[in-house]
Amino acid sequence: MAPRVHETDWQKFDGFTPTFTHPNLTGDELRFLLGAAYTRFYMRPSWLANYFGVESRRARRYLGLLDDRISERHAREEIALMSRAVAC
Is 15 left (phi over 0), alpha (psi -120 to 50) or beta? Predict the structure, then answer.
């Protein structure tokens, strides 16, 4: 990876700022995909329920259904926003 690293400012090695050149993706695409991954993980209703300690089986079943619907929505939004197929 060393030849692909283009950033010299250590402050930008924060886990969100692209610091290397990807062979197939632009910096904007990398930022979008990383942001989408964080959003898809942390904005799941079931993750929030775990965080707040919700233990009701009925609530967990309902939250699982919400997870599925939200996941489908995120997938549709990502497809709409990505202007081309991404080959990693």
Answer: left
Residue 20 placed within a domain: no
Tell me if 33 sits within 8 A of 25, measured CB to CB.
Answer: yes
Residue with tokens 């400012």: 9
DSSP state letter for 53: T
Tens-digit pLDDT profile for residues 50-71: 888 988 999 889 888 888 888 8
Question: Distance between CA 26 and CA 11 in Å, rounded?
Answer: 20
Provide the 3-class DSSP secondary structure of residue 42.
Answer: helix
Q: What is the value of pTM for the model shown?
A: 0.57
Flag whether 19 is in a domain: no
In a domain, 8, yes or no: no
Which residues span the domain enclosing 51?
Answer: 25-88
